[in-house]
Specification:
The protein is mostly beta strands and 271 residues long. The chain has helices at residues 3-35, 148-151; strands at 37-44, 57-63, 70-76, 83-88, 99-107, 120-122, 128-129, 135-142, 161-168, 181-187, 194-200, 207-212, 225-233, 246-249, 254-255, 261-265, 267-268. The protein folds into 2 domains: 35-151, Immunoglobulin-like (Sandwich); 158-268, Sandwich (Immunoglobulin-like), CATH 2.60.40.1120.
Length: 271
């Protein structure tokens, strides 16, 4: 065999080896993902799917079967069933083991804790072991409220809430309209997404506020420090800004249990 052919075959064998190794690693990653997730298809039952539109958010939630603490969450958008899903270890920072209860609901206005016309929800399932595939989950009823089991665990106290007074910087007072809503949100500083949300339909500045465990999205348990954002909402879309909306953002993380906080809306809301 010539020297050139030997070099070619050596390179070819090396390439094949690397390709096989990469494919094997990918298969291992997928197998691990399946092992620590619950997957299947979300379906809408007859008579309840008419209110679902493609722009809805679907919140896919896993709860600890003993404590009913939210342990993993995923938002699917756009959402239009039937649609496949997989939720598990990739959707949380805590280690998952064993079995969990599954809940899926839709959200049209950015507040999954409050029902709006056309939103739907399914049942809080019995425990499903991680690694389970081909789950058929039905959205089978209008969303009126979260399951009673979860609401029983949503309680507020000074220790698990943040409260204070909201004011507006004088130069933005003329931007506030009587038809605006006031949206109060706590954000997870690591994931950068809201973990609690509260909306006030009627308000006057200076406005008292409190947000905490009873406002936690999906009934999850709040603890530690959070970023606080408060904004005015003119279009029932708190994650989409329109001219005239204003916002305040906490400069530092705020611990649950902080009271008498003075919070100022001091910026135009641009997103």
């Amino acid at each position: 065999m010539s020297k050139n052919k030997l070099i070619f075959w050596s390179a070819f064998v090396g390439f094949v080896g690397l390709t096989v190794s990469a494919l094997w690693n990918e298969l291992n990653r997928n197998a691990t993902k399946l092992e620590y997730s619950i997957s299947g298809v979300i379906l809408s039952a007859n008579g309840v799917g008419g209110g679902i539109i493609k722009t809805d958010n679907a919140h896919v939630l896993l709860f600890d079967p003993k404590t009913l603490e939210l342990v993993a969450s995923q938002i699917i958008n756009p959402f239009l069933p039937p649609l496949t899903f997989s939720v598990g270890q990739a959707d949380t920072s805590r280690p998952l083991r064993g079995a969990y209860r599954l809940l899926v609901l839709t959200d049209k206005d950015g507040n999954p804790n409050r029902s709006s016309p056309g939103e739907v929800i399914g049942q809080l399932t019995p425990s499903i072991p991680l690694g389970t595939e081909r789950v058929e989950y039905y959205m089978d009823r209008p969303f009126i409220r979260l399951p009673a089991e979860l609401l029983a665990f949503s309680t507020d106290s000074p220790k698990n809430s943040i409260s204070g007074i909201i004011t507006v910087h004088p130069k933005f007072l003329d931007q506030v309209d009587s038809e605006d809503r006031l949206v109060i949100m706590l954000f997870d500083p690591k994931k950068g997404r809201p973990v609690a949300i509260k909306m006030l339909e009627k308000f006057n500045f200076p406005q008292k506020f409190s947000i905490g465990q009873s406002n936690a999205m999906g009934g999850q348990t709040l603890s530690g420090k959070y970023s606080l954002r408060i904004l005015t909402d003119k279009n029932n879309q708190p994650f989409q800004s329109v001219p005239g909306e204003i916002i305040g953002r906490s400069q530092d993380l705020i611990s649950l249990g902080v009271n008498n906080l003075e919070f100022v809306l001091d910026q135009l809301y641009l997103r």
